[in-house]
Amino acid sequence: MDDPNAYALDRAQLRAAFERAADTYDSAARLQREIADRLLERLNDVKVDPATIVDVGCGTGYCTRALTRRYRRARIVGLDLAQSMLRRAHRRDWWRFFDGRPGFVCGDAERLALASASADMIVSNLTLQWCDPVAAFAEFRRVLRPGGLLMFTSFGPDTLRELRTAWGDVDARPHVHGFLDLRDVGDLMLHGGFADPVVDVERMTLHYPNVLDVLRELKQIGAHNVAHGRARGLTGKQRFQQFRAAYEAMAGEQGIPATYEVVFGHAWAPTGAPRRAHGDAVIPLSEIRRRRA
To answer: Which residues of 190-220 are buried (b: 16+ CB within 10 A; e: fewer)?
Structure first.
């Protein structure tokens, strides 16, 4: 596509996709949980004692629960774009075993409704690829206190390469989102005002019995194609069969592959004065109640 905006995301459709996926997300999010575990393991190498933590893109609360176990004295807030995801996180029976229950707030990573310099740590697992990264990094930097830590994961450009290649045999429309390269992520963190950025990558491949299982799992976690340049309307039977045949030709002994390039990053908010808020109403973290479900 020649259109530079073809891969820009329709945020209304993005929110709707995740709202619909709340009931099926946990049963399908095996990769997301594995990546979250690897991200949280990296906290073992970082000496921090945060008083306030924000889990941006918390979904149904997997990372939020792990952070609550690890930092029992911290105030923890889970934030997500989809209200239905937050409702599932609220209803967890797991929270009754903890006095310091997390709070939850519905919000957008590109415009965090949180007060400036109010968090000691931001953790974000597989959310950045659904955002304008310039806006998201600017907001992460604004909300972190001086010396605060950002830990995140995102997907790199090799993600779902088999799916992209198979659709490339059919048409030139974007069927898979564009993902940031490792070097671009580091540059964007520096541009966003972060200090000492560290970025590395791991590659993971899942295998499926057939192509329909790949597509079904993506739908169950809410990973729809919401690029503005996507094809509108129903995919014709002939075009879909052409795509399916191209994808099935990539099958190996383990089945149909789906590759994910996972970018891990962390950086620090510098110790100078925090950046000012964007002007919208913001919520002090102390006012986010730890409500019982």
So the answer is: eebbbeebebebeeeebebeebeebbebbeb
User: What percent of the chain has a predicted confidence (pLDDT) above 90?
Assistant: 68
φ, ψ at 113 (rounded to 5°): -85, 55
On the 0-12 / 13-18 / 19+ scale of CB atoms within 10 A, 159 is buried
Tens of pLDDT, residues 97-154: 455 578 899 999 999 999 999 999 999 999 999 999 999 999 999 999 999 999 999 9
> Are 185 and 265 in contact, with CB atoms under 8 Å apart?
yes
Task: Kindly report the number of other CB atoms within 10 A of residue 90's CB atom.
Answer: 18
- Give the pTM: 0.87
Instruction: Answer whether 22's CB lies under 8 Å from 220's CB.
Output: no
Residue 254 has pLDDT above 90, yes or no: yes
CA 117 to chain centre: 22
pLDDT tens digits along 163-189: 999 998 888 777 777 788 888 899 999
**What phi and psi values does residue 289 have, to the nearest 5 degrees?**
-75, 145
The domains of the chain, with CATH numbers, are 11-157+178-203+261-287 (3.40.50.150)
pLDDT-based confidence at 291, cuts 50/70/90?
A: very low
Type of residue found at 146: P
Q: What is the DSSP string of 55-116?
A: EET-TTTHHHHHHHHH-TTSEEEEEES-HHHHHHHHT-GGGGG-SSPPEEEE-BTTB--B-T
